[in-house]
């Protein structure tokens, strides 16, 4: 019997594509931006990238959306092309290069930094935002949304117990997260507190222009940011971890797909005028 499992840490595109038929008449067509590989990725993190990306793509398809996966492992040919999609979803990965938010000295705990991938991601965000497309970011994706608006990042959370496991323990923990009342996120999740799957050593620090805190950890760390005036939403935890609550994942992804569908219908109507 042949074992087709990867023998190294490199994540291949075929590892993450779900075995599901893409809708022939999709509600929305989504650009999914992922870093399938990044410098010094560990075997454990490569396994998470495979699983989380596959769950993300499967969830989009199950909700009636189609997708195109853009992998920033290699330079994107035309990041501005993100404007042609109905929405953009940014997934997790390595840390953002500190130079992107004004830090010149690399923190010793930093991991997986790829400044070129960061620049490509910011170009995708800028194109999607200029085209008024809904944008949803997860973990690194949420941090990218904040930095794209001029915000900063905590380089390493010293008191980390709420946010990731200790050395030698499982990386991911179930984290209680308080959702801020009156936010878009609150209306999506319909709960004052959720349990999120977390494995992050960094988080949003100074909030970017036009953004508000949409969720906090019990220690006050920012766990979500959003723009109150448009669908520009980032969550620090991993709703695409299928070890976490399915209902919360479906609420978040459904809201994003609905916003992308609305964007699609608006674009079609505009072409008919």
UniProtKB/TrEMBL annotation:
<dbReference type="GO" id="GO:0033969">
    <property type="term" value="F:gamma-glutamyl-gamma-aminobutyrate hydrolase activity"/>
</dbReference>
<dbReference type="InterPro" id="IPR044668">
    <property type="entry name" value="PuuD-like"/>
</dbReference>
<dbReference type="InterPro" id="IPR011697">
    <property type="entry name" value="Peptidase_C26"/>
</dbReference>
<dbReference type="Pfam" id="PF07722">
    <property type="entry name" value="Peptidase_C26"/>
</dbReference>
<dbReference type="GO" id="GO:0005829">
    <property type="term" value="C:cytosol"/>
</dbReference>
<dbReference type="GO" id="GO:0006598">
    <property type="term" value="P:polyamine catabolic process"/>
</dbReference>
<protein>
    <submittedName>
        <fullName>Gamma-glutamyl-GABA hydrolase</fullName>
    </submittedName>
</protein>
<dbReference type="InterPro" id="IPR029062">
    <property type="entry name" value="Class_I_gatase-like"/>
</dbReference>
<keyword id="KW-0378">Hydrolase</keyword>
